């Protein structure tokens, strides 16, 4: 039996010249998705951060196929995080010989991919089971199918109310 103890491969981008807040906006959309779906999402997003993240995801997949020999169709983004880096500080000349400080923020982005072909079968788990039991399964949380609560309604009536005609929001005077 061959035991693979290293199933996660990562790519790390440091000192990327953008704020961490703008990069997190894109990272939150791709976390937990498959590799192919992630590339499609990043190509269609209009943000400047998506190009840097696209390169990192592509690099992480290349690392996984080179180091583990895994197929790119089986890869999933299991962890993606953005941390703040150092700020590049500059001085801009202003009137009367004064200077004005400019801070250019940077960020560190790490993308971790995992090969899901190493796990056979999926568990069907109630979402209200104790957390220690879930940790003892040694499986990533995105592979667990979670049951929906029984009390959740399947059909909900949509309330069609016009706020303006019922006088709810504005008083026209």
TrEMBL record:
Xref: InterPro entries: Ribosomal_uL22, Ribosomal_uL22_bac/chlpt-type, Ribosomal_uL22_bac/org-type, Ribosomal_uL22_CS, Ribosomal_uL22_sf
Primary localisation category: plastid
Pfam families named in the record: Ribosomal_L22 (PF00237)
One of the protein's GO biological processes: translation
PROSITE patterns per UniProt: RIBOSOMAL_L22 (PS00464)
GO cellular component, one term: large ribosomal subunit
Subcellular compartments: Plastid, Chloroplast
Molecular function terms from GO: rRNA binding; structural constituent of ribosome
Keyword set, alphabetical order: Chloroplast, Plastid, Ribonucleoprotein, Ribosomal protein, RNA-binding, rRNA-binding
KW Phosphoprotein (keyword) present: no
Subunit organization: Part of the 50S ribosomal subunit.
Family as reported in the entry's similarity comment: Belongs to the universal ribosomal protein uL22 family.
Protein purpose: This protein binds specifically to 23S rRNA.
The protein's name in its UniProt record: Large ribosomal subunit protein uL22c
